[in-house]
Design a protein that fits this description.
Blueprint (H helix, E strand, L loop, with lengths): L1 E2 L3 E2 L3 E4 L5 E13 L10 E8 L2 E6 L8 E5 L3 E7 L7 E7 L9 E8 L4 H17 L15 E3 L29 E4 L35 E4 L5
Parallel strand pairs: 3-12
Antiparallel strand pairs: 1-7, 2-3, 4-5, 4-10, 5-6, 6-7, 8-9, 8-13, 9-10, 11-12
InterPro entries: GRAM (IPR004182), PH-like_dom_sf (IPR011993), WBP2-like (IPR044852)
GO molecular function, one term: transcription coactivator activity
Protein name: GRAM domain-containing protein
Length: 229
């Protein structure tokens, strides 16, 4: 995970070259439990993006110390999708810092979807994490915050992705990010993502069963690791 490396201007998000957005939601609250970095304290409200490589949160308060949060799939574990009887649905989990990511350690995070969409986002997030792990090298690459200039992304970066690597989020991708809010670097992603054109890495041990569950009612808590350690 990296802090303050994926935002542009007041509300914009910055992608890597060839990175694509699966799902976008507004009205999401981010908070951390036992976060040792002062920038991660308190509740943050903003937008959440699920891409082919990671989850990105962009704070709507441009005066806050945490402006954006990038969580590649390989940095997350112990993910839970919860549907309380009272209150909005949310996704929780543990995320660890990348090298050179502007912070250190691990933190427990919580994403509350006050305008709905947690179930659809969570299902696609788990499925994308599963697929991304197939293309992950044995050791995650060293990360350094991008320094290159960025530019407004072309429409394919944020239009619904049909049947991309087995993920079908287009029925819930009913609102695109606002015009002029999606930008892109010229450099490619520095970590693995969902790329059906790449051959999977050999697996030294049998793969653990992984399924994307259905959520017919309330009071459901599902715990699935994107990358089991």
């Amino acid at each position: 995970m990296s802090l303050n490396t994926s935002h542009a201007g007041k509300d914009g998000v910055v992608l890597f070259n060839s990175e694509r957005i699966f799902i976008y939601h507004d009205g999401v609250e981010l908070s951390f439990d036992k976060a040792w970095d002062n920038r991660m304290k308190g509740k943050k409200s903003g937008r959440i993006y699920l891409t082919t490589h990671r989850v990105i949160f962009v704070n709507k308060d441009n005066k806050d110390k945490l402006l954006s949060l990038s969580m590649p799939f390989h940095t997350m574990k112990k993910l839970e999708l919860e549907q309380p009887v009272f209150g909005a649905n949310y996704i929780a989990g543990v995320v660890k810092a990348e090298q050179g990511a502007n912070w250190q350690g691990e933190a427990m995070f919580k994403l509350v979807f006050y305008k709905g969409g947690a179930i659809e986002f969570g299902q696609a997030m788990l499925q994308a994490g599963k697929l991304a792990s197939r293309y992950a090298p044995p050791q995650p690459p060293t990360y350094s915050p991008p320094m290159a200039p960025y530019y407004e992304a072309p429409p394919p970066a944020y239009t619904p992705q049909m049947q991309y690597g087995g993920i079908y989020p287009s029925p819930v991708f009913n609102v695109q990010p606002p015009p002029g809010s999606v930008y892109m670097y010229d450099i490619p992603p520095p970590y693995p993502g969902v790329d059906p054109n790449l051959p999977p890495y050999p697996i030294s041990q049998p793969a653990q069963p992984f399924s994307v569950p259905q959520y017919p009612g309330l009071c459901v808590c599902v715990c699935v690791c994107v990358v089991c350690e």
